Amino acid sequence: MIEIGADTVIKNNGSKTQYGGGIRNYGEITVSAGAQLYNNHALIAGDDIYNGTYKYKTYTCDGRITFAPVGKDWVLDDCNDPIVGWYHDGKEKLTDNAYKRWNGDGEGDAYYADEYTVSEEAVSDALRSRLHTVSSAA
Q1: pLDDT tens digits for 126-136?
Q2: What are phi and psi of 99, to 5 degrees?
Q3: Which residues contact 129 (CB under 8 A, 6 or more apart)?
Q4: Which tens digits make up the pLDDT trace of 7-54?
Q5: What is the pTM of this model?
Q6: What are the φ/ψ torsions at residue 124 (nearest 5 degrees)?
Q7: What is the rounded CA–CA span in Å between residue 39 and residue 120?
Q8: Is there a contact between 31 and 48 (Cβ–Cβ < 8 Å)?
């Protein structure tokens, strides 16, 4: 198991990474309170976090991620905008080789912000999908 410590900063990474610009996980990780994870990019899916299943022959590993409890001040560190939810990033396929990427700033057909709604109990399970965090100002 890997623990992302309270003073860890993961930001502005992944311009060449296909999945998980900030974190690409197939094992088990815990993100501690105080860790900063934002503004990362991936070419295909999961700008900030890609949490998935790895299969090789008879071996399968399901990624699990656990977040520390978060209080009322859950905000983006670079602009202090509140984080308002989790959004799919790369869930829907456009063509054989392309997926829709999160684009909350786009207009018309370019707009794509499919919110992933989960109960408090299911946050870790929800992150098996490709997700992107956004603020209310995005």
Answers
A1: 444 445 555 44
A2: -120, 155
A3: 51, 88, 91, 116
A4: 999 999 877 888 889 999 999 999 988 888 888 988 888 888 888 888
A5: 0.57
A6: -60, -40
A7: 24
A8: no
